[in-house]
Design brief:
six-stranded mixed β-sheet, globular, folic acid binding, tRNA-modifying_YgfZ, cytoplasm, folate-binding
Length: 326
């Protein structure tokens, strides 16, 4: 087992809902995993499996995408980028045991090797993250590769780093010299505020891509050829069959909302299940924030609460992007 982090102490940060985020934080992404694809047929094979356009992805870019079943329900949402001699898929660790065998199912007929990576996954967050990456990785693109490491820009304040285990300790020590150390809970907070979707084991095969706003974050190509689940995804767009969307919600919580938890909505004087938590973050002041899938036609005055906390009240927050079709 890798001991790269033995000398470092990654702990949850104590942040209230009104606190500013650290100017630089190094995050141990232990709840995440990386899948690699290498081989002559890696591009064509993956193109026929996922929602994003693999063929048009340049080495300087990354993209979100989803891997669905034949009914269009998502097994995972991932970030795809060129990594070493192939592709890397950055996704939740909790889906690996079920999703990876499905991705590999037909690989025996193609020249492609699909395996879980041993790379250490680190996140660099904060307003100083860009400058820190610039000092360590050459180039000016959103994906930067050097020997045994790839850095991927997530947004203006976040970078993902996938580094080989033998180089991980030295790199982590260098980054930790002027950064706060955090567990992946901080990464969750960034994802929630950016409304970036994910799939965990508890939400696997529950939703079509549009229910988690994947079309709004450029994770679906409607111009590429066929892929697994494509008919359902296209029907959701062109026939309007999808009736759900993902929203940012905030409210009272004594503990962190977990993926799969239920949100209830008011219906007259009664309460009924209204939505499902996708990801949550607990602040230090008994407030929490979460990504929640809800019906996309709810009245503005609908009240919400956590199903496990009837006294709580939750409100929908503004999304950082539009859900309107172009």
């Amino acid at each position: 087992m890798s001991t790269w982090s033995d000398a470092l102490h990654f702990a949850p940060l104590s942040l209230t809902s009104s606190d500013s985020l650290p100017t630089l934080a190094l995050v141990d992404l232990a709840d995440w995993a990386l899948v690699t694809l290498v081989g002559d047929d890696k591009k064509s094979y993956l193109q026929g499996q996922v929602t994003c356009d693999v063929v048009s992805l340049s080495p300087e870019q990354s993209t979100l995408g989803a891997h669905c079943d034949a009914k269009g329900k998502m097994r995972t949402i991932f970030r795809l980028f060129h990594h070493q001699q192939g592709y890397g898929l950055f996704q939740r660790q909790s889906v690996m045991a079920t999703q990876l065998p499905e991705l590999k199912k037909y690989a025996v007929f193609s020249k492609v090797d699909i395996e879980p990576s041993e790379d250490v996954l680190l996140g660099l967050c904060g307003e100083q993250a860009q400058a820190r990456i610039d000092s360590l990785f050459t180039g000016d693109s959103d994906v930067r590769q050097q020997d045994n490491a790839t850095a991927v820009k997530i947004d203006d304040q976040r970078w993902l780093i996938a580094v080989a285990p033998q180089q991980a300790e030295a790199l982590a020590q260098t980054l930790a010299a002027d950064a706060q150390l955090s567990t992946s809970a901080l990464w969750d907070l960034y994802d929630i505020r950016a409304a970036l979707p994910r799939i965990d084991a508890s939400t696997e095969l529950e939703h079509v891509p549009q229910a988690l706003n994947l079309q709004a974050v450029d994770g679906i190509s409607f111009k590429k050829g066929c892929y697994v689940g494509q008919e359902t995804v296209a029907r959701a767009k062109y026939r309007g069959t999808n009736k759900r969307a993902m929203f940012i919600m905030q409210g009272d919580a004594a503990q962190c909302p977990q993926a799969g938890d239920a949100i209830e909505r008011s219906v007259g004087e009664n309460w009924r299940k209204g939505g499902t938590v996708i990801a949550g973050y607990q602040f230090a002041d008994q407030q929490a924030i979460a990504l929640v899938v809800l019906p996309n036609d709810l009245d503005d005055d609908t009240q919400f609460r956590l199903a496990d906390a009837p006294e709580s009240r939750w409100t929908v927050q503004a999304l950082p992007y539009s859900l309107d079709d172009e």
